[in-house]
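User: Fold this one for me? It's AAA+ ATPase domain-containing protein.
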Amino acid sequence: MAYSKSKWSEKTDTQLKSELTEILRNSKSTDGPTMKYILNPTVLTEGDLIRRERIGQKNEDKPRKIILMVGETGTGKSTLINAMVNYIMGVRWEHKMWLEVTEIPEDQTESQTKAVTVYEVNAPSSPFVLTVIDTPGFGDTEVFDEDKRVSEALQQLFKSEDGIHEIHAVCIVLKGSDVRLHARQCYILDEILSLFGKDIEKHILLLFTHQEKQILPKRIMNFIKESFNKYVKNDEYVSFSFDNCQSDYIDQEDRESYKTSWNNGVENFRKFFNYVNEINPKSLHMTEGVLRARKQLDASVGNLRDRIRWAELKKQELEQTKTALDKFENYKEEQNNFQCVVDEPYKEAVPINASWMEWSKKATRCKVCEENCHYPGCWWVRDLSWCSVMDEGKCTVCTGRCHYTKHVKDSKIYVPKTRKVTKTNDNLKEQYEEKVGEKKSLMAKIEKDIQQMEAEKIRLVEECYQCFDKLMETALKSTSISSFIHLDFMIEKVKETGNQARVQKLEELKRRATEEHGGKVERLHAYTRQMKI
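Assistant: Here's what I get for AAA+ ATPase domain-containing protein.
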């Protein structure tokens, strides 16, 4: 069913208000030439990451259309969502009214909310139920953690049983007044596109705000061709333009001058919704996998660093013992007098020292392996079987791949430390469970353990690289700055394995990321030092 141009304009103010009686109930209103109603939706769920609201009476007989709205703070995304609600509810210029599902702050350069908000819009005259997923504006500050919350929330939304599992369109909101992408927009687009799988590419729509004309000007077409095509290689982008001035109609003397602009906006929304109505939904299975892979990569790298550090400390202890043995020329005769001081590694659970973000104060730890499996963890998860690093009830990160019931989520992490201990002949005998009368055989045993520690390091690096490589293959955007934080570490460790082809691949990714993100990279280095990633 397509939207006709005159479908709602034939309704009088009284008829429309009668149709929207339930929706307008309990709303706040402001008198004037244009009556403003601030709606009071039914809150279905409310949390730190996700808020779900319903406008109108639930209707399961109509098909659903689901769109995701993403964009930089200040592009007019909130106003655009309000305009969508007005259009689908049938509000037109003649009705002298305006609905707001989300109040527009005076300072639109800051995002209203830190939660992803899902609006379920049930409009009596609409041929479908519209679900709008509104993400907080990216790039509010230079704090990297704020933007990471979006991927946290989306993964929770896409993964949960009663969540969103398919989508019709990902709408990237851009300012029509921009003629090129500035540095912050590049970062924002990078992070937005890195959230999705490659199969979502054809479902990306570009929505330009603050644009009065129905036909996109040549400068915007050049903007798409020259600026946006370097992010996603697509043959043709579908784009729509909107004028964000509808909510400004306050003075009676100004209303008439806005009529043409309003009607142009109605026509553009008609085209937009007719297009959306014809789109087949796309499963979010691959996208949820990308989000999960990103979190598993973070967890794997953090766990890998700890385990490599542990292997290095164990190797150091063995080498200290071996060096001490070298000094005993007649070990067989003097073994009972043998002793040496070594740095023995051990693990201690210590409080997390992270004051910049509340959600970074939780970690998922394996009590059996004494390892940090997910830090910063899924702080919103109550049942650890839902943690991002769990698969079919078992951890994908810790050494023993232990059951989730062997894990704990709290405000502590394991930290590898060393302490001075004195080793004797009895210690060696207990460690190797055999007589140690022969220095040669004992040295060979220790050397074998040293080689095993080195082999374990190589295996861990390979495991982490495979996770990184998989992410590069499936993500729509492979050089996001959130992936960049791992590159230096990965390059260093892959170099130690001697695989030059992989080193070149990672260094090329780093070069591209550095070119695209510039100064943001230095701030990411500061972030990783804080998080001790």
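One thing worth pointing out: Residues 285-326 form the longest helix (42 residues).
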